[in-house]
Every structure is written in structure tokens, then in C-alpha cells.
Amino acid sequence: MRARNLLSLLCACVLTSTALGQQSTTPAPAAPAAPDDIRMIRYKISAGDLPSAESILEYHRMEKGEDGDYLLGLAWVARGAVLMGDWKAATSYAAAAREAAEAKLKTPADYDSNREAVYALGTSIEVQAQALVAAGKKAEAIRYLEESSRAQEKAPYNLRARIWKRRNQIELEGKPAPAIQAEDHVGAEVPSLESLRGKPVVLFFWWEACGDCKMQAAAFRRTVEKYAPKGVAFLAPTRFYSADRSEEKQKIEKSWKEVYALPDSVAAPISNEAMLRYGVSATPTFVFVNRKGVVVRYLPTRMTENRLSSAIDDLLR
């Protein structure tokens, strides 16, 4: 289990911008490349060496103070402690990250100028919720995330979506799939999830400029071609990422036609509300819904064609 978790983290480390709350797959305000200390912290965590990561963070603090990079380091060490199963350290670093981040995030403008603090705050919230679940306090974790959502209701989208993502990872499976109210759409006409009861449904959340999504496109298209004739319904929600919705819709439509080649067979509803509710802070995100309209898998990650097929085969059983 630990090896698999560490491998997942190592993959995440390759996405430098992810560590800064920007993810190569989901847009957010630009942030500088990770400095050497942060890079080394991530490498040590990926190698399962939490004490060395802590030592690097301590050295950075002595040399440079509690700057933005220190906040990122706190967040990474907190995440690393989770992966090592060191919940005492995880909660301690999460609390420190939240305290330091909130000290820098006093006004809405601060969220734009202190991106490292925004990332650290999101990480601290996620880690604290994970720690509560690990301690057998799932209900308390959900309450904590609800309170955090209310406290951050005016925060940037990505932070609010991260809170929803963590909540969904804890409790969405086994519950009815939240409705998707489309503001607009491309592709086929958008059916309601209610109208699809009786059919297995696969939700593929994406962004037209997302590199991971584009690399997922061929496998997703082949999966649609294989399973749509078997009665599986597919929806591909996305959202508007910029203020110029007219121009962005043209980009969405062009990508859906040229990259995914599914302009007529799969509906792509455009819904900021649905993307937030489903916690799409990273694209692609997959959600598998059974014939009763209940979520059976929630996976904010890329998937191979084989894993997609396996998940859908489970729906069809």
C-alpha cells in the first residue's frame, strides 16, 4: 500500500505546477516554478524519507524565513506524512500550514497575490479531514469540510473545488449522483441524470486545454464506442474557465470535435456549478454511476482504457 501511495506522489511531483495549486490540467493563477528546496522535499517524500523532508523544511525556514516557499514546503510535508501514515505529524504540519496561510489571506485580493498560501490552506484542510477519517471520525470530517466550505465561499474556484473533492472522496460513493444543470453545452443534447435511470452512466469531467485530458481522449473515445452500444450512457461535463464565454465555447466545441471526435454521440454540458459540486479541481475526473443513479466510483485521475473497461464492466454486472 505504501509503495503504491509513494508512486502516486512521485507522479504528482512531476507536475510541478500542481504543487503550486495550478495543475497542468486545471487553470489557476500562474505561480513560479518550484525552487530547489521544495523540489528536494518532494523527492525525499517520494522516496519515503519524511525525516529528511522535514529537515530540509527546517533548514529553509532558518535560512529564508517563512516565505511562500516555506508555506509550500509545509503543505508538501503534511501530504508526505499522510502517505507515511504518520498522522501526528500530518495534523501538526496541517495546523501550521493553515495558521501561516490564514495570516496571509485576510482579504479577497490576498488570494490572488499569495498563491502559495492558497495552496497551503487547501492542503491543510484536506489533510485535517483525512486525519479525522483515519481516526474513525468520518462525520466530524464531513462537518469540518462543510465549515471550511462556508468559510471559503468567496475564495477562488480551485480552493473551493479542492474542499468538495476531498468531501466527495470521503462520502460520495454510495450516494445519488448530484444533478448536472447545464448553463450551455456542446455535442449532443444534454439528458438529465434522472432521465438516465436504468442505465449505467460514466461522467468524464474535462477541460479543453488540459494536457492530461487530451492524452485521455483516444482511450475515452474507444471506450464510448465499445460500451455505448451496450446501453452505457456517457456525459462529459466541463466549465467556463475564462470571462470570455463566447470565445471559450468555440474552443470547447473545436476540441470536442477534433480531439475527442465525439461531437454527435456524447453531450458535453458546460456547468460551473456541477464542476464545483463534483470537486473537479483536477481534470480529468471520472465518476461511475449505476443504474439506480448511485455513485459507485469517484476517481479524480486519469485512467487507462483497461481500467475504464473494468469499471464499466462492474456497472454492467
Task: Give an account of the 3D structure.
This protein is of the alpha+beta class and 317 residues long. 56% of the residues lie in helices and 8% in strands. The strands form two sheets. A four-stranded mixed sheet has the order 3-2-5-6, covered by helices on one side. Strands 1-4 form a two-stranded antiparallel ribbon. Strand 2 (201-205), helix 10 and strand 3 (233-235) form a beta-alpha-beta unit. The two termini are 28 Å apart. The model is unreliable at 1-34 (pLDDT under 50).
Q: How would the blueprint of this fold be written?
A:
Elements: H1 2-14, H2 36-46, H3 50-64, H4 68-84, H5 87-104, H6 108-113, H7 115-134, H8 138-151, H9 157-171, E1 184-187, E2 201-205, H10 211-227, E3 233-235, H11 245-258, E4 267-270, H12 272-277, E5 285-289, E6 295-299, H13 305-316
Parallel strand pairs: 2-3
Antiparallel strand pairs: 1-4, 2-5, 5-6
Helix pairs in contact: 1-2, 2-3, 2-4, 3-4, 4-5, 4-7, 5-7, 7-8, 7-9, 8-9, 10-13
